Structure formats: structure tokens, C-alpha cells
């Protein structure tokens, strides 16, 4: 017997809609589950906004934002090919401070993943972790100073 979990956590023995001789199923990759729909509705996002073919949806802004904390620690570690302990050590070395979810879990942005990648590359070349973090911070400060200097120079010219 097919069973569907309701939003209250109880099981409803409701079969899916049937048309003809086959059962219609929604694509789980494009259709949010019941609890996801409630969370999205609380944020003012309609199910139509979550479709991949809807340009200009509110989610586009978050997905394009380098600073949006979209990745869990496990996913970030998988993407970078490092252990979660390495990511925690970057937090302890104060290279960056990941944001926290409502449950207290670390969440990483794409920008933070780029910093972690740079740190991993330096560590793989034999640089100590603290030194790698300091190098990255100084390189970023230098790049920002050069950008600001170039901007001021354009104003003078």
C-alpha cells in the first residue's frame, strides 16, 4: 500500500492521482516536498519561483550571490576534497567565520569556498596553515588597496 507522510508527521494512506493505466508522479528535483513548500511559503516564495525555467525568481539573487551561505560543512568539504576538520581549522585560524544555520550548523558561501581552496593549495605546497591564512589575508588586502588606488587615480585623471 502506498503511503504519503503528511505535514503533521502522520501517515496518510492516500494514493497518488491516477490517469489511465499509469500513475502520475511529480519530479522530486523540480517539485518541493510538503515541508519545503511550507518553508518557502513562509519566505514568500511560491512553488512557481522554484522552477528551474523561471527567470528572475527571488532564488536567482541568492544563487548568484557569492556571499550567500549555501553550502553545509559536509557539502563544502566534498566540493573542496578536504575534511570537515580542515574547514573548522580555517574558522579557528580566523581566515573566515562561516555563518550559522538556525540549528547552529556552519554554512559556507562560494567566496569562503574560494578562500578555503586557496588555503588548501598553499598547505598542499608545504605552507603551515596559520601562515597560509595570513598570506591569503595579506594578498586580499593588497588587492583591495590596489583596486582602491586605481579607482582614486581614475578620479584624479
TrEMBL record:
Pfam families: MerR_1. GO terms for biological process: regulation of DNA-templated transcription. Residues 70-138 form the HTH merR-type domain. Gene3D superfamilies: 1.10.1660.10. It comes from the Bacteria. InterPro entries: DNA-bd_dom_put_sf (IPR009061), MerR-type_HTH_dom (IPR000551). Residues 29-38 have a biased composition (Polar residues). GO terms for molecular function: DNA binding. Residues 1-68 are annotated as: Disordered. This is MerR family transcriptional regulator. It comes from Actinomadura spongiicola. The lineage of its organism: Bacteria, Bacillati, Actinomycetota, Actinomycetes, Streptosporangiales.
